Amino acid sequence: MIKVSQLTKQIPGGPKVLKGVSFDxxxxxxxxxxxxxxxGKSTLLRCLALRESWTSGxxxxxxxxxxxxGILGKMKIRREMAYLEEKPTLIPNRTALKNVLxxxxxxxxxWRRLTGMVRNDDYMGAMDMIEKVGLIDKAHQKGDxxxxxxKQRVAVAxxxxxxxxxxxxxxxxxxxxxxxxxxxxxxxxxxxKTQRISIVAVMHQGDWAERFxxxxxxxxxxxLVLDIKGRRMTEREKMLL
Length: 241
Ligand SMILES: Nc1ncnc2c1ncn2[C@@H]1O[C@H](COP(=O)(O)OP(=O)(O)OP(=O)(O)O)[C@@H](O)[C@H]1O
Prior knowledge:
- The protein has helices at residues 41-48, 71-80, 96-102, 110-115, 120-132, 148-160, 178-195, 208-212, 235-240; strands at residues 2-10, 16-25, 30-34, 56-61, 64-65, 81-84, 166-170, 198-202, 215-220, 223-229.
- By secondary structure, the chain is α/β, with parallel strands linked by helices.
- The protein binds adenosine-5'-triphosphate (ATP).
- Keywords: ATP-binding, Cell membrane, Membrane, Nucleotide-binding, Translocase, Transport.
């Protein structure tokens, strides 16, 4: 269980982007973040991944007070949380499998990324992950020959192959056609249910959040103004964002 309390992010000499945001993340939960452009969605995600520093607040992950643990806290987050930026890129001339195996910058030793050398159990783990995102028949297809949705699913596999239990993902279906978007979100939802992976996804466009998320949290100008079960939002709730 993850507890975010009073997360505030002040840009030095700039705006206060997040203002006392508090919410919990349960194992296996799919949380969508909604909010207008500039409301702080991506900053919230990057703060959860510790890619941005927190100005104040507390961050408890499995009972560990992360911000008080310094480098150990950072290592725990890097181990347990995978961060996927909007429109992730694959190495075009490497297969889907190789992308999963060696593409995760920062999680694979540099010598292994450069040489492409992998251990047998890494290979099995990557194949498992590719199967979980429903792409086993595309494992040996080159990155640039995959469709947008397939690339996104490979990127999800790459992000999770090192055993993370939480996936933080920015606009997972941005730029995808409705069919591919549906496939990506079905995979993500399935992972939550079968592997108890928690997902926090910025999903502002369309009604994807309402259709796939267990919970929707909403930001307006850096404040959390909505925290509801995943369902069709009322007009009043939409007005809050
Ligand atoms: N390093 C920074 N310096 C100055 N302003 C920043 C910085 N980082 C974020 N901001 C501002 O904070 C606000 C929130 O940015 P953020 O990217 O989190 O919004 P968002 O909700 O993800 O927007 P979008 O939907 O357009 O991607 C924006 O107004 C942005 O300009």
